[in-house]
Structure formats: structure tokens, C-alpha cells
């Protein structure tokens, strides 16, 4: 399962190479919210794979807000397809390489603690 948090840049790890048939494919990512059916689609280029061992796993750096800033938190089904295009977002005729579940979290809340030197008298 992929876990993403809004407001962060995170790595996602996948195993796309084992099923790909193109030498240097670009990857179409399709995320579909399980509650609302809202879809998020984007393409990551082959060159964006920063894995040192592409035959074993694929690693992408993802700016979560770029794609999910206004999207609802929760579970998404994801599918990844190979293609030669750098911009196509239509899955018709494409080969699926991987599918799974992604959990999208809201931004983490940062709490600030304040210290005070005020003293108070209590009546008895």
C-alpha cells in the first residue's frame, strides 16, 4: 500500500519493470477515490525513476500537493500503465503494469507550545 501525505514530497516504490514490454516507457498513473470515484491522472517519465536497481524496483519522488492538494483524504485504487507518450491520459489500449491501494492523508498538523512567566493568585 502506498501512503501519501498532503504537503510533502515523498518517494513511492513500485515494481513496474517486471511486466513492461517497452524499453523506456513513460508511466501513466490513474488514482480513483474509492468513495467518490474522483480520478487523478498524470504521467511520470521514464527518466523520473530514481531507482538504482530498476530491474528490482522503481522509485519516484512525488510532490503530493501537485496532484492531490484539493482531493479528499481516504483510499484510492491506483493503476499504472506503460506508454511511449509523455502526455496521454487515456488508458485505452495501454498495458497495465501494476495496481494497488493508496491512502491519502491530510497535511500533518504542527502544534506550537508557548511558555509563559505569568503567575496567578488563587483565593482560598
Map the helices and strands.
Blueprint lengths: L1 E4 L3 E6 L11 E8 L5 E6 L13 E6 H5 L5 E10 L11 E11 L19
Parallel strand pairs: 1-7
Antiparallel strand pairs: 2-5, 3-4, 3-6, 6-7
Description:
By secondary structure, this protein is mostly beta strands. The protein has one domain (2-105): Immunoglobulin-like (Sandwich). Helix content is 4%, strand content 41%. The chain has 1 helix and 7 strands. The protein has a 5-stranded mixed beta sheet. Strands 2-5 form a two-stranded antiparallel sheet. A hairpin with a 5-residue loop joins strand 3 and strand 4 (39-44).
Labels describing this entry:
mainly beta; 7 strands; 1 helix; single chain; 124 residues; five-stranded mixed beta sheet
Q: By helix and strand content, what is the structural category?
A: mainly beta
Say how many strands there are: 7
Mean pLDDT: 93
Radius of gyration: 21 Å
Give, in spatial order, the strands making up the sheet with the most strands: 1-7-6-3-4
Shape: elongated
The biggest beta sheet reads: 5 strands, mixed
SSE run = EEEEEHEE
Percentage of helical residues?
under 10%
Number of helices: 1
Number of structural domains = 1
CATH architecture: Sandwich
Q: How much of the sequence is in beta strands?
A: 35-45%
CATH T-level fold name = Immunoglobulin-like
Distance between the termini: 59 Å
- Assigned CATH class: Mainly Beta
Low-confidence stretches: none
Give a short synopsis of this structure:
The chain is mainly beta and 124 residues long.
Amino acid at each position: 500500500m502506498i501512503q501519501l501525505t498532503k504537503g510533502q514530497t515523498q518517494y513511492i516504490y513500485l515494481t513496474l519493470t517486471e511486466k513492461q514490454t517497452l524499453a523506456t516507457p513513460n508511466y501513466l498513473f490513474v488514482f480513483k477515490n474509492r468513495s467518490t470515484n474522483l480520478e487523478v491522472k498524470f504521467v511520470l517519465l521514464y527518466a523520473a525513476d530514481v531507482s538504482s536497481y530498476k530491474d528490482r524496483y522503481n522509485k519516484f519522488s512525488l510532490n503530493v500537493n501537485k496532484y492531490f492538494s484539493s482531493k479528499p483524504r481516504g483510499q484510492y485504487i491506483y493503476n499504472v500503465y506503460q506508454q511511449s507518450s509523455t502526455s496521454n491520459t487515456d488508458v485505452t489500449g495501454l498495458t497495465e503494469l501494476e495496481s494497488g491501494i493508496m491512502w491519502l492523508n491530510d497535511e500533518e498538523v504542527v502544534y506550537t507550545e508557548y511558555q509563559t512567566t505569568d503567575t496567578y493568585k488563587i483565593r482560598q
